[in-house]
Automatic annotation (TrEMBL):
The lineage of its organism: Bacteria, Pseudomonadati, Acidobacteriota, Holophagae, Holophagales. It comes from Mesoterricola sediminis. Belongs to the UPF0301 (AlgH) family. InterPro entries: AlgH-like (IPR003774). Pfam families: DUF179 (PF02622). This is UPF0301 protein. GO terms for cellular component: cytosol.
């Protein structure tokens, strides 16, 4: 099995699974045990402030900031995409400025930093051993190089359209 991550997966227009319809996935891990990523273009109808109130966490960020649906697997699990800062050894570095973390202590510090640049994804997209490779061969996904501008796109609803246009030229 080839190591694909990190990269972006763009759902084929023919992929009708409601979990992934018109989605762009940041592929974080891919090895012989399977693959894991987060959907970049699914904001949740709940703010970070609401999540923090329910979880009894301090919050000092943008009251309009939303959480994101990372995928259908384990929706109680938080995955943090961070722009800037210094990753720890257990974090996954994506490029020169972005990394993925699952650390609660990092999330707590980001939530009280008004200028922090991050996204909190609830849940993730997961594939068993060989499953993603098979879906790629079947044309369910197109693999595109990591594009840092897309990771925290201002208009996530248009991200899939931009990705499809970049593939088709």
């Amino acid at each position: 099995m080839s190591q694909l991550a990190p990269c972006l997966l763009v759902a084929s227009p023919l992929l009708l699974d409601p979990n992934f319809l018109h989605s762009v996935v940041l592929l974080v891990e891919h090895d012989e045990n399977g693959a894991m990523g987060v959907i970049l273009n699914r904001p949740l109808p709940v703010t970070l402030q609401q999540i923090c109130q329910e979880s009894r966490l301090a919050f000092d960020g943008d009251p309009e900031a939303t959480a994101w649906r990372g995928g259908p697997v384990d929706p109680q699990r938080g995955v943090i995409l961070v722009r800037g800062g210094l990753p720890e050894a257990e974090d996954t570095v994506l490029d020169f400025t972005d990394f993925i973390s699952y650390r609660k202590d990092l999330l707590e510090s980001l939530l009280i930093e008004p200028k922090a640049s991050f996204r909190l994804f609830l849940g993730y997209a997961g594939w068993g051993p060989g499953q993603l490779d098979q879906e790629l061969q079947e044309g369910a996904w197109a693999r595109v190089p990591l594009n840092p501008d897309w990771l925290m796109a201002e208009d996530p609803q248009e991200l899939w359209n931009r990705a499809i246009q970049s593939i088709s030229g």
